[in-house]
Amino acid sequence: TASMTLTGVYVLLITPFDAAGEVALDALEALAHDVLDSGASGVVALGTTAEPDSLTAAERGDVVDLLARVCRKRGARLLVGANTVAAVRALPESTVALSLVPPFVRPGEAGVVAHFAALTAASPVPVLVYHVPYRTGQHLSVDALRGLAALPGVVGVKHAVGGIDADTIALLADPPPGFAILGGDDAFISPLLALGAHGGILASAHVATAEFAALVSSWRAGAADRARALGHRLAALSGALFAEPNPTVVKG
Question: What pTM did the predictor assign?
């Protein structure tokens, strides 16, 4: 099921640039192998951490092609930031589209569900909803999240609500079958996992990748004492890595 495949840590890869300002594909390839060697379940291409709006269309294509090749070779999962019908239709097979709740326009919960119904109907690949209300301006209740989970083609959510609210508790207390709930707020990943989240999509996991992977596996195995100690240490690391706007500190 989707929830079985979308577990573990997915690293939101930065985009390395060379001294001339070109995308350093060799460095990106080495970075992808490094995080996969360290226990990541997969990587994310063209997430906001990757600065995709700073890339040309050709550069974005080169990044996706490279990371798709790496993930096929490694048997890892590739998520790709893709928010429109045209973008998801262009994705390679075996990827998952990471698609943002429509930002700024605040279409309402019914509008969000209608948007994803249209997107998944057109998409050749599964879709993972990116829910980050403090950036999109659109809150989603647990009922709306369940409505999204019921759509064919939606395999889960990157859940980044800036904390743990009542809707988060209700969702994790009774998760929809086959629906992966992946934490997207790095500092809150340990308590989300304690509540039952399946994994995380984390920029912080560029650093201490193996420990973030161990955090997920420890909570899922019920090793609470080990997980709690790891979570405390990694929350402090995430706080430091987000002390300036992402991905400034990670890239540094």
Answer: 0.96
